[in-house]
Amino acid sequence: xxxxxxxxxxxxxxxxxxxxxxxxxxxxxxxxxxxxxxxxxxxxxxxxxxxxxxxxxxxxxxxxxxxxxxxxxxxxxxxxxxxxxxxxxxxxxxxxxxxxxxxxxxxxxxxxxxxxxxxxxxxxxxxxxxxxxxxxxxxxxxxxxxxxxxxxxxxxxxxxxxxx
Length: 164
Description:
Blueprint: E1 7-9, E2 12-14, H1 19-22, H2 27-35, H3 43-47, E3 50-56, E4 59-64, H4 79-95, E5 103-113, E6 124-133, E7 137-146, E8 151-162
Antiparallel strand pairs: 1-2, 3-4, 4-6, 5-8, 6-7, 7-8
């Protein structure tokens, strides 16, 4: 681990794992190690106050807290916050399907915002699920809901999968 990149906040470590640390791990194992706090969470998760909550084969669930720090000039949480949370769940759902050494990159993603997010909207749950995993491409869908199940945004993503 790059110790000089790590910081602590509420028990979470943020930074980047080295290639050597994760080279032998599947995508699902990497995600599980982040949840178990054996690997650090990406620094962006600290900045935008969201974290990986659970993973399974083809599934990634994040939880985030909207705050006034993410407000746009219109007085609501910026759509980019929701888009980043969705992109994370979508991409990580794909990542859970990767074999050790495989990688991926996002080719495109689409977001639909269905209602404004406010700082008092409460904790948001973003669940990404794989729709298709082929040899070279994968697609996923995700929803962003509050604790009561009310939909705030949803999206889809296409990723390119590449071999080591």
